[in-house]
Amino acid sequence: MQSNSFVENSGHSLEGYRGWWTRLAGHLGAVYPFYDLASPDYCSLDIANVIAKRVSRSAPVELDRTAVACKVGLPYLLGNRTLVKGVERAPWVERPVSPGEWQLMPLPDHGSAHPDKDEFLEKLIQALRSELEGYVGNSRTVGILLSGGMDSRVVAGVLREVELQNPGRFDVVALSWGAVGSRDVVYAERIARQFGWSFEHFPINAETLRENIDIAGYAGAEVSPLHLHAMPAIAKLENIDLVLAGSYGDSVGRAEFSGVRVANLKPILPSNIDPFGVLKHSVKKAAELELARDVRCSGHFRSENSSLRNFEIEQEMHYMRRMLQSCMLHIGREIPLYQMFTAPAVFGLMWQLAPEERGDHWYQYVLEALPGRLLDIPWARTGTRYLEQSGEADQLPKDYHAYGEWLRNDLQDLVVSRVNSDVIRGLGIFNDKGLDKALRNWLKAETKGSNSLDELISWLASLYTFLEAYPVSCQLAEPNVVGDAFSAMRGSLYGNLYVRARNFFRE
User: Fold this and answer.
1) Cα within 13 Å of Cα(498), Cβ side
2) Are 62 and 87 in contact (CB under 8 A)?
3) Which of 398, 498, 428 lies closest to 456 in space, CA to CA?
4) C-alpha distances in angstroms, 341 versus 131, 137, 192, 440?
5) Contact 119, 127 (CB under 8 A)
6) Which residues of 189-200 are buried (b: 16+ CB within 10 A; e: fewer)?
7) Average pLDDT for the chain
8) CA distances from 124 to 7, 28, 346 (A)
9) Fewest beta carbons less than 10 Å away: which of 165, 169, 459, 461?
10) What pTM value is reported for the model?
């Protein structure tokens, strides 16, 4: 694995920039520490440490209103921004060369190749095997996040092949979360038992979500607690040397981001960052220009890039890095966590393909070549064999949680009290009438799963924890009576239609 020349050879000192994750600076699945722009000689994987140092030198801890606006409009933050002004995440695919200065690392080109299937498949499997072996090293116990999806299944197949080639070198523990009897849990256990691996199951329930509300807040309120699942529980495991994940599999292996193919990607910043009308008009307007700059804040965006390349970089830099990896850091702070598919040798292979070549079929080819006949186990998304167009789905439940139901029923009193508290309302950046209407529409939802209002309301409950845990100040927003009233009214109409549509079209 590529070493970090800054850590090993530089005469500079960046306190805190050390450990397993410093080797990953050129990987898509790198780890991005927090650091203070005004005191960039220190970084940490825990924002609490950076805030504490800021407080110790009597520097202000001010809420970033643009970051709040971003979280209202998206499930994640953009660029390097955090909820604290002057505190940032390390930039994407860069390495530190001196405190506060970062250097772009090489990024593989996008291409238009139509390779020979067998030759490319051999290269891809070898690249995946080398990536996994580089992560595992001399570890004695390897954890793998395993679900019923295809990306973790590919990781399982590669891990099994390496295990068979190195008998007795390491033990494997499969880790899965979700409702007992759901497809994800059943399929994951089936794979683990088939390979003779230990299996650890982590149930998810309303209490899990309740705990994650506070855990997300202490970690900087960068993501909604709906995305943490059992990660905090896994982080407490002992006697596991590292954890392998396949979260980047869909984006790299299947060229799909949240169900959208890479050739169909659109700009990541929505045209309206406040669809439910919960922000004050002045906060929203001020944030729009700053967020547009955040989207393209990396030197990896270049005028000569194709729109496809820039849109894929947007997804990797913002969505995958700021939401997915922010969640995974709850494990990574305690146990080294490595994302498969993210080494340059792996994603570079996929990026060199023509867009139409980057599809579902590569997973099928890879799994056919790996041990375990893993294609015989249905795909959790459909309950049928992977890519099978016919056949009856199994009778196992597809959903592995009921976050929406738990949030709106079991945790309703807690969440509503927090959203209505002086801690949230007293910030002076939220539109009170808009929040009132959003809460009413939110409680009309009937789906078991979560929706965009669940995302917003649960994040506000975590924001409450963040504001209570740290000495955060906030600059009041300028009032705009007409603009605020219009935003609340329009947001209420949109929210009402949104919830009605979700109730009608979803179970």
Assistant:
1) 19
2) no
3) 498
4) 8, 17, 21, 42
5) no
6) bbbbebbebebb
7) 94
8) 30, 17, 7
9) 165
10) 0.95
